[in-house]
Design a protein that fits this description.
This protein is of the alpha/beta class. 37% of the residues lie in helices and 20% in strands. It is built from ten helices and eight strands. A hairpin with a 4-residue loop joins strand 1 and strand 2.
């Protein structure tokens, strides 16, 4: 399938797709709403297909890349769902202990895009751990739509405990220096903010991509340095930023924030037309440099 850009679609259709992706509407409602953008040659169903993820586009670091070594591990989570399965990736020729990064997925489980992000970090010299929040529901089902459906069935409070357990497991891993960061996307961006609140001094750095903000009252608990990435057109998430920024400033928390103009929510995800190559590459360069500064 030929890769298409966000500019190839009406913004109203992209906003409608954002509602679908986040489970606010089902596929039927999306198709009904997409009818206004359909033509004789392009049906609403065709529009839906063209906006869905294509994971072949996201493989920047193949699983058999000689630079990395990957494995599946189970992390015990007694306060959560009992255990959480994770994807652990490290540089193949690393000597000595490494800084760690927890990679948190969107609201559909540990899909191939997020696994590739973990491999990208390992190729940059980090010990990367990507937990699958759908472990208690059988794991990522291989299909994003099914993943979103399963995600609704997961107890979010227990899931938060699972992510906390995974982060603490990584911090104490014998190959880790004990300095860890977290990066998350969409739902995972909100989790990165949550980890910054809950882990305190255990987390050195957090990088939420277009993630929901924590309550202002919880900001004093944050000890991690923050780098926050937002999409310029993402009104739904961006409306929570002013209150978050005010609280960060009030309590003297270190942060950097970047807004990427004319980009949509999900601009880093290179499996859909919402991907913005220039913004994604710039945000990623900033993220890797930030982790190198704060974790090493």
């Amino acid at each position: 399938m030929e890769r298409r850009k966000a500019s190839d679609f009406p913004q109203g259709l992209l906003d409608l797709f954002d509602l679908y992706v986040h489970g606010d509407i089902d596929r039927r409602s999306f198709l009904e709403g997409a009818q206004k953008y359909a033509t004789g040659a392009v049906t609403a169903a065709m529009l839906w297909e063209s906006l869905r993820p294509n994971y072949a586009w996201a493989q920047q670091v193949p699983p058999d890349d000689p630079r990395i070594r990957a494995e599946r591990v189970d992390v015990e989570s007694p306060q959560g769902n009992g255990r959480i399965r994770c994807y652990l990736v490290r540089p193949a020729k690393a000597q000595g202990r490494l800084p760690g990064v927890v990679v948190i997925h969107e609201n559909r489980g540990l899909n191939p895009y997020i696994e590739d992000v973990a491999r990208r970090l390992a190729a940059e010299g980090f010990l990367a751990l990507a937990p699958d929040g759908l472990t208690s529901a059988g794991g990522y089902p291989g299909d994003d739509e099914k993943g979103v459906q399963l995600f609704r069935e997961v107890d979010r409070q227990k899931l938060n405990e699972d992510f906390l357990a995974a982060a603490r497991w990584l911090r104490k891993h014998p190959d880790c220096t004990g300095r860890i960061g977290a990066v998350g996307f969409c739902y995972g961006g909100g989790v990165a903010n949550m980890l910054a609140v809950r882990l305190g001094e255990e987390l050195a750095a957090a990088v939420p991509f277009y993630g929901g903000q924590p309550p202002a009252a919880e900001v004093p608990k944050i000890r991690a340095a923050l780098m926050l990435h937002y999409a310029g057109l993402d009104k739904r998430v961006n409306e929570g930023w002013p209150a978050y920024e005010a609280a960060l400033k009030e309590h003297g928390k270190p942060y950097q924030v970047f807004f990427y103009e004319n980009t949509n929510h999900g601009f880093h995800n290179d499996t859909t037309p919402r991907y913005d190559e220039a913004a994604a590459k710039l945000a990623w360069q900033r993220t890797v440099a930030f982790f190198r500064e704060k974790l090493q």
